Amino acid sequence: MQPIDKRGSVPFDPHYDPITARALGPGSDYAPTYWIGTAGPAPEGDGPVRRDMDVDVAVIGSGYTGLSTAIHLAKEHGVKATVLEANGVAYGCSTRNGGQAQISAGRLKRSQWIDRWGLDVARGLHNEMVEAFALFRGLLRDHDIQCDPQDGGHYYIAHKAGVMPTLGAEAKLLRDTFGYDARMLSRDELFQTAVRDQEAQGAMWEADGLGIHAAKLAFGYLRAARELGATVHPDSPVQGWELKNGVHHLRTPGGIVRARRVAVATAAYATRSLHGRLRDRLMPIMSNSIVTRALTPSELEAVGIRTLSPLTDTRTLRHYYRLLPDNRLQIGSRAAITGRDAANPVHLNGLREGMARKFPALRGIDLDYSWWGWVDVSHDMMPRITGLPDVPGLFYSLGYGGNGVMYSAMAGRRLAQLVAGKSVPDLPIFNTELPHEGWRTPFRRLGQWGLYHLYHYRDERT
Ligand SMILES: Cc1cc2nc3c(=O)[nH]c(=O)nc-3n(C[C@H](O)[C@H](O)[C@H](O)COP(=O)(O)OP(=O)(O)OC[C@H]3O[C@@H](n4cnc5c(N)ncnc54)[C@H](O)[C@@H]3O)c2cc1C
């Protein structure tokens, strides 16, 4: 494994688990990811909170969502936000993901949007995703964010023959109903043009899909937010929260931040104690990621990846993978259920085996990086960017379900609009709250264990 830049006074805790943890931060090193290992030093923040302060808008969490919220508050509403981060900037998912920008948010397909909400709402959601992708590209361009973007669409790889008809139907729906450029590739076409994934039976190609360098994107957002006047405080976890006379009192180790309006952008990383109204509205799901050493020319030939754009397979417990610009291969998939079990070799071996099934030439290859992170999955598989009617001045954007690299840019813009008292589109991701788990809460991990077995059976055996 490669060493990474050390930043904190506290070693990185690979077993952090948001369901059981009492605190997050301050002072932790980053997770040992390829992105942190290759991004160069993180740009300056504004240092931890060191005294009590009164601010207009506080944003909790400095991942893509929190930083995009700060950027759009400044750009579109003239508000200079104060961002509070428990550890280093973008300590959570935003420096641990697969770097795949896709034209989606949450875990549902277009056909599932139609089943749930009908065609008009599905069209509204689709338009929101199209607008979001344009906004995302615009942010990279306008703020000169050098995050090594690799354009070329997204490949949705059929991991078994049985899924090809469903994939074909989804591509047709995208074309005919949404007017979106999606098409099917046979196994031969896929092998010739994109990848020699030995499991693949064909694929659906979507026109939008971008591979990015995850940490460079986060650090680019940080620079942009600060240039626009936002203040970003690392190592300032919110450890207590009281609402007094319409003012939110956010307690950090260095002082209390008093804010009239608060935007929560903590994804899966917040502890359960952050705020009672937000507790248990997300299911934190762990995802593993590995990066190999650079592939040799013969390995590259065997793997046959002729694109740098993102690839995902059709398993429910899906694999997401890419060839990185330096010829390393990155691949990720499901991981442990609890933080305590995160480093169990069985999970790393499972991911290695998944890679070897796709690319037998890479069986046993040395790895340069291995890490994991928590994904914020909502109980109905769709995100929410909304306010709480009974708590004045509190808004949140949570629940992208492992599909937030692209959409978090727009989510931050929408969250900024809500904070500024402006209207947002009339869509269920904005006008309803994240559902709660209710009586199932104590059994959620047992349920997850059962579902993993069911999904594995469906993915591999049927
Ligand atoms: C392994 C992995 C792979 C992924 N791959 C992809 C992918 O390829 N494509 C894709 O679209 N999405 C992917 N995702 C999801 C994507 O990374 C996220 O949707 C996105 O980064 C969310 O950004 P965020 O800002 O909402 O959350 P985060 O980046 O997680 O930021 C939340 C921040 O809040 C901070 N925080 C928490 N509690 C507090 C507190 N009390 N006080 C102060 N700060 C606090 C945390 O430290 C953290 O930095 C992946 C996620 C993981 C874990």
UniProtKB/TrEMBL annotation:
UniProt keyword Iron, yes or no: no
InterPro entries noted in UniProt: FAD-dep_OxRdtase (IPR006076), FAD/NAD-bd_sf (IPR036188)
Gene3D superfamilies: D-Amino Acid Oxidase, subunit A, domain 2 (3.30.9.10), FAD/NAD(P)-binding domain (3.50.50.60)
Superkingdom per UniProt: Bacteria
Keyword terms: Oxidoreductase
Entry keyword Metal-binding: no
Record EC number: 1.-.-.-
A single MF term (Gene Ontology): oxidoreductase activity
Domain FAD dependent oxidoreductase: 56-418
Protein name: NAD(P)/FAD-dependent oxidoreductase
Naturally occurring in which organism (per UniProt): Paracoccus angustae
